[in-house]
């Protein structure tokens, strides 16, 4: 099988020929039809903290014998701890995820530890479905966890309306009556957010109103400070983006009383199933742009430059 591999963190990915994975025990092989290129993959290249060679790709859709077209849930927990037992493997402390600790979807085939991680997608195409398993699921769960903070008309910021933020805007409109304010540096992203239902779309400098919650899909010092400067007492600041910004939390910090700080991390198998249903009911809009495995480095450069409107999705089975 053809694989795009990180051999050296400071070099472009290599396209290599690897032996096909051979399943043992409960394992299942999925033929990868589509693998979304998440912004986290850029962070992975910069963090340099996973063992090499690394095959990235955690937004996987494809075909498995006996299952047809499936979405692959990326979070493979230990299966035995209390957190896994309650069905939240994405929070397991012994997690081994596709595209992080285990070989992921930047390849023609991927070895999945168990068929329990495969979710049939019915009439959805793998190309369209791939971003649902991470971009949509992470945003769905983030919004659900924000619901207790949001009453009708409450202003909530969605900072960064890229692939994840575009889903967050839609879930906020579907699940709450909050006033949704999208914030992005890019004009085209702001325009897209308005199309998707945001009440306002602003640059960071234009945001001056008091807010009740901030869902931060960037998480740099500047975005955390923007939220901290406007958040009302008792509000919510949620870090979803993997940026390395920080805020002073201790006494004398900049934040009003009783603000809740939290982070987001992926979603559960049940969250993925719920998101597939929203998509199948036609309640979600999202853009995908296919890209050949051979062009993976072009894709990473475009993602780095912010030159992607929705999600770039690798199609490992397609050759030039
Ligand atoms: P993306 O590249 O598609 O979108 C990022 C958006 O942020 C772009 O529209 C960009 O213009 C905007 N942006 C950048 N800097 C900004 C700033 N200072 N102010 C306002 N907007 C700004 O990225 P994505 O794939 O949607 O991922 C978003 C973030 O979420 C990444 O950091 C990624 O690593 C993280 N992520 C987290 C989880 C999780 O489980 N917590 C899951 C997936 C992705
Ligand atoms: Zn991701
Ligand atoms: Zn576990």
Q: Calculate the mean pLDDT score and round it.
A: 97
What percent of residues adopt helix (DSSP H or I)?
25-40%
Unreliable stretches covering 5 or more consecutive residues: none
Structural class given helices, strands, pairing? alpha/beta
Shape: globular
Question: N-to-C terminal Cα separation, in Å?
Answer: 16 Å
Bound molecules: nicotinamide-adenine-dinucleotide, zinc ion
For the secondary structure, the number of strands is 15
How many individual helices?
Answer: 9
What share of residues are in beta strands?
15-25%
Described by strand count, sense and barrel closure, the largest sheet is:
7 strands, mixed
**Estimated radius of gyration:** 19 Å
Strand and helix order: EEEHEEHEEHHEHEHEEHEEHEHE
Question: Can you describe what's shown?
Answer:
The chain is α/β, with parallel strands linked by helices and 320 residues long. It contains 9 helices and 15 strands. The strands form 3 sheets. Strands 3, 4, 5, 6, 7, 14 and 15 form a 7-stranded mixed β-sheet that branches. Strand 11, helix 7 and strand 12 form a beta-alpha-beta unit. Helix 4 packs across helix 5. It is globular, with a radius of gyration of 19 Å. The two termini are 16 Å apart. The site of one zinc ion (ZN) has 4 residues, from loops.
């Amino acid at each position: 099988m053809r694989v795009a591999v990180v051999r050296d963190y400071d070099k472009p990915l290599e396209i290599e020929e690897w032996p096909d994975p051979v399943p043992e025990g409960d394992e299942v092989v999925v033929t990868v039809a589509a693998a979304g290129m998440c912004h986290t993959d850029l962070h992975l290249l910069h963090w340099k903290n996973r063992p090499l060679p690394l095959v990235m790709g955690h937004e996987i859709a494809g075909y498995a014998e006996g299952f047809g077209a499936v979405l692959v849930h990326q979070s493979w927990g230990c299966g035995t701890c209390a957190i896994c037992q309650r069905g939240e493997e994405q929070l397991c402390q012994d997690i081994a995820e596709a595209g992080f600790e285990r070989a992921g979807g930047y390849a023609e085939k991927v070895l999945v530890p168990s068929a329990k991680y495969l979710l049939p997608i019915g009439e959805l195409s793998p190309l369209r479905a791939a971003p649902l398993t991470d971009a949509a699921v992470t945003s769905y769960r983030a919004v659900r966890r924000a619901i207790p903070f949001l009453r009708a008309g409450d202003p909530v910021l969605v900072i960064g309306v890229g692939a994840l933020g575009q889903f967050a805007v839609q879930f906020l409109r579907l699940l709450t009556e909050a006033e949704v304010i999208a914030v992005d540096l890019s004009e085209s992203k702001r325009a897209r957010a308005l199309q998707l239902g945001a009440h306002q779309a602003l640059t960071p400098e234009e945001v001056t109103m008091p807010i009740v919650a901030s869902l931060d899909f960037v998480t740099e010092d500047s975005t955390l400070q923007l939220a901290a400067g406007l958040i009302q007492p008792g509000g919510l600041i949620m870090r979803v983006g993997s940026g390395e910004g920080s805020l002073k939390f201790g006494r004398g910090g900049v934040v009003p009383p009783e603000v809740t700080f939290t982070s987001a991390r992926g979603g559960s198998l049940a969250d993925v199933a719920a998101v597939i249903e929203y998509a199948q009911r036609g309640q979600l809009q999202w853009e995908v742009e296919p890209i050949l495995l051979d062009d993976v480095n072009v894709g990473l450069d475009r993602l780095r430059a912010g030159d992607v409107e929705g999600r770039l999705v690798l199609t490992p089975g397609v050759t030039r």
